[in-house]
Amino acid sequence: MTCVSRYSCRMERVNDKGAVERIVTKFLLKTCRLCRQPSLRAVEAAFVCAAVAREYCPRLTGSEAEFYIEPMLPHVGDFDIMFYDNTELAIPRGHPPPTQLPAEFSDYVQVFEITDTHLPCYVYLNRRYLLEKCTDYGRYRVIANEHREIYFSSPKFGFGERHGPAYTSSVLVGVVEEFPSEMPMDAVYCVRCLSWPPQAADWPTRHRSYGWPDSATVDRVVSNGCDVVNVAHNQCRENEFMRECQWRLSFSRAEIVLLNSWIPEQQIVYHLLRVFMKSEQLTECAENAGSDKLNNYHIKTLMLWACELKPKSWWTADMNLVRTCFLLLHTLADWLTKARCQHYFINKCNLVVNSFALEMIENRLKSIGREWLSSWFVNTYVQQSVQNCPESVLAMFSNISKLTDMKLDDAVSAVVQWRINTLKTEVSYAHDYAVWHIAFAVFSFPLDVHLCICFICELSKLDASLSDYFLAVAFLHIAHKVARGCEIEHFIETLSSVSDFLVSSNCNERTQSLLNDIVTLAHMYQQPAMSSTQRSVLCKLVELLQRSAVELLTTFRQLEAREFGSVATIVTTDFEALYAYKHGDYQRCLQLSTQNVHTLLYAVDVPAIPTFPEFIQLLDDDIVSLIALTLIVDPNGRDEFHNVFISQVTLSLYLMTQCQLKLRHSVTSLAETLDCIEVAQSNHPIFLTLNHLVLKLIERKLVTYMTT
Q1: How far apart are CA 339 and CA 330, in angstroms?
Q2: Does residue 447 surpass a pLDDT of 60?
Q3: Percent of the chain beyond pLDDT 70?
Q4: Which of 87, 307, 560, 593 has its CA 20 to 30 A from that of 371?
């Protein structure tokens, strides 16, 4: 059955044949969010990447890295990760081995020389050198391999099932009931190459009539080098040696940079083409370039060439995304007719070969007309996109094939308005989701260099304040561990490496300054001359870590209030009040907590603070004992959201009560606090167990004090 016959029914239209195309374009441009704001999907992707960082050097690829738009119909597929071992490096044949490497590489690194095969883009890796790190300024000593022909095949990994170069698996990033615990993942093992490959030597310098990509983008692409992934060409997989030892050059790093430099219209068209081809079953799921079937890599190649060969006005002149998709689909059909799809980076590489399957796809693409494609976008794409809209909006799309242009336009306008109205709430929810997972990850995972740098990189892409929040929790984690007797030497390398990374990544100066002070004090502890006063230095270090964390957390709250104050009531001094209480400044703590109670008492949506050890070190023995009792009763209590968080209003009431008792306030004042506790008890959802227990605790304290 052809594409056209599947949509033989025509929608009722007025005389303007372009009306549907304009309405579809309006829907796409108005509902695709264009800024990098936290979404649940993006947060999950960041934590999948960070979870892999416990063992390897990961990099997010695929949709989550390539798109900066968030359409209503989500990008399909698992999370895509490329990961490499920091003890391995590839270099082009004839290039001298490097004597300096980026910080993520190990002290001992095997170097493989990239040699060509008989197929463009496919190579072998020949083990050639060993790099050994010297003590002077991080340089490496080169040791040549006496045996020249030792070909490298990919190590076998025990996680997931392998499909082409990818291991399909899932990764654990959390265990709280309210949040999914395992995320699906396609992980591709690669060997890092820091150099731009000579097989693509003419790409940076070729003539570009319309200025895309510009010279700065080209320079950035080339400076990122490439990767090599272990997969053989489909024509070579019957040969045992080639199947094991053949590799493919991967330009994923380059593609991410290029796709993120596209204008929104280009990103939307790429998204639409992918959805269309998958929905119509015209592409395979696996991105295995060089096969006799179409896949997403062919669509990406189509878009890359179009962006380079078409002027910007071609994409934006009449703002008709349906027309653009129509023209590109017919360009793809022409490529299939000629059996020619030139690799975007390597001239000699053709991504298609003649096959009966491709001939069928070619015929289907040629049969597509603009009016049919418009109907497809309305009947399929828009219809699927609006399924999560409220009933009042969804009702406007009932019997969508019968809608007139005017009614369709009204329905689309209603969706656009709903999308705008819900933006802040959705982003706020994703933000809270990220905050929980940061606290859980620092509590659960070893705090090493790779994890820290990966978290900071991935979180800063979503929201710069989240990376500062991670650093604050990391500081509290180290302070907690050191105060309990853990050797500070375990963390000094991590702190120093993170400090160097922040300098190289142009992090804000205040965060750099805080970390530099911590690193300086930590190094003082290691000096032999300081051995007599090490205990004093250690106490100062714990104090500095806590104070720096509170400063970062307070700044984080201020940014949070500025960003989400329209959908939640957020006070910015909860951590400051905690710190004042910890250091016996009860008057200051009481002042801040009283203000916070008055602000939060009748609020519907307020932030919360996790009760992992990193945070409860700032609390006193009474509340710590209460949390411990909940874990004795239910050892798996931290697996449940309601046993992990304490709300800002509950914490403020607790601190307010404790300060009033310590400062011996009058019975009248205490009675007013009891009234506030009663209001808080009635306002809290019943499932927030820990909050109810804390409120019961301070209520009992007040009643006992007042009656005795």
Answers
A1: 14
A2: yes
A3: 90
A4: 307
How far apart CA 213 and CA 211 sit, in angstroms, is 6
pLDDT band at 532 (very low <50, low <70, confident <90, very high): low
Q: Report the SS3 class of residue 10.
A: coil
CB 455 within 8 A of CB 440: no
Element (DSSP H or E) covering residue 128? strand 122-133
Q: Which residue matches tokens 């990544």?
A: 505
Separation CA 559–CA 582 (nearest Å): 24
Q: Which two tokens stand for residue 347?
A: 């001239």
The runs of H, that is alpha helices, within 235-354 are 240-245, 252-260, 264-279, 296-309, 312-316, 321-338
Judged against a pLDDT cut of 70, whether residue 36 lies above it is answered with no
Q: Report, in angstroms and rounded to the nearest whole number, the Rg of the chain calculated over CA atoms.
A: 29
Give the C-alpha separation, 378 to 372, whole Å. Answer: 10
pLDDT given for residue 11 in this prediction = 42
User: Comparing C-alpha atoms, which of 301, 285, 284 is closest to residue 341?
Assistant: 301
- Region of 584 please: left (phi>0), alpha (psi -120 to 50) or beta: left
Q: Answer yes or no: is pLDDT of 299 > 70.
A: yes
What band does 23 get if pLDDT is binned at 50, 70 and 90?
Answer: very high
Tell the burial category of 369 from Cβ atoms under 10 Å away from its Cβ (0-12, 13-18, 19+).
exposed
Portion of the chain with pLDDT greater than 90, in percent = 50
| Residue 372, both tokens | 């049919």
DSSP SS3 for 237: coil
Cβ-proximal residues to 651 (8 Å cutoff; 6+ apart), any chain = 574, 578, 609, 694
User: What integer pLDDT is reported at residue 332 of this predicted model?
Assistant: 96
pLDDT at position 189, please?
93
Max avg pLDDT among 45-54, 463-472, 580-589 = 580-589
Please count the other Cβ atoms lying within 10 Å of the Cβ belonging to residue 269. 23
Q: What are the helix (H) ranges across 139-251?
A: 215-223, 240-245
Closest Cα partner for 312 from 233, 214, 455, 405? Answer: 214
Q: Average pLDDT for residues 496-511, to the nearest whole number?
A: 80
Rounded to the nearest integer, the mean pLDDT of the chain is: 86
Question: CA–CA separation, 38 vs 45, rounded Å?
Answer: 11
Q: Is there a cis peptide before residue 213, judged by omega within 30 degrees of 0?
A: yes
- Would you say how long the chain is, in residues? 708
The H-or-E segment that residue 497 falls in is: helix 489-504
The answer, yes or no, to whether residue 134 has pLDDT greater than 70, is: yes
Long-range pairs of 580-588 with CB within 8 A, sequence gap ≥ 24? 581/618, 581/620, 581/655, 581/658, 581/659, 582/546, 582/618, 582/619, 586/658, 586/659, 586/662, 586/663, 587/659, 587/663
State the pairing for strand pair 122-133/108-116.
antiparallel
**Rounded CA separation 252/119 (Å):** 19
CA distance 553 to 468: 8
59-62 LR contacts (CB < 8 Å, sep 24+): 59/83, 59/252, 59/253, 60/458, 61/188, 61/252, 61/256, 62/186
Say what the pTM is: 0.85
Strands, DSSP E only, in 594-637? 608-610
